Amino acid sequence: MDIKVTEHKRVMVVEVHGRIDSSTAAEFDQAVMDLIEQGKKNLVLDLSDVEFLSSAGLRTMVSGRKAVQPSGAIKLAGPSQRVKDTLEIAGLDVLFESYADRESAVGSY
After folding, report:
1. Which of 20, 54, 72, 95 could form a disulfide with 68 if both were Cys (CB 3.0 to 4.6 A apart)?
2. Rounded CA gap, 109 and 75, in Å?
């Protein structure tokens, strides 16, 4: 798994490539929670190149969502079909606004 964080005017984009599974979820969690601890409340998770999303990755997303509310949000950019399916099966798809691409997600803030 590879994570790249970029800053836009009011938004931090966390771009993830590869698998978010039991062996990589801690790294994903650290990247997201570090941003939140730094006071970054508007996050876009670019999951367009994520092949697999485990329950540990879902836990990070839900915990992060709770931590940034009510003043911020976590939005998804171009989630892969596998990520969409995982969110839907877990019943979490309703918790995250999803956009077709990164530009749309960033622009929604």
Report:
1. 72
2. 9
Domains in the chain: boundaries: 2-107
* CA–CA distance, 84 with 96 (Å, rounded to integer): 11
Say yes or no to pLDDT of 75 above 90.
yes
47-69 confidence digits (pLDDT tens):
999 999 999 999 999 999 999 99
Beta strands in the chain (DSSP E): 2-7, 12-20, 42-53, 73-77, 98-99
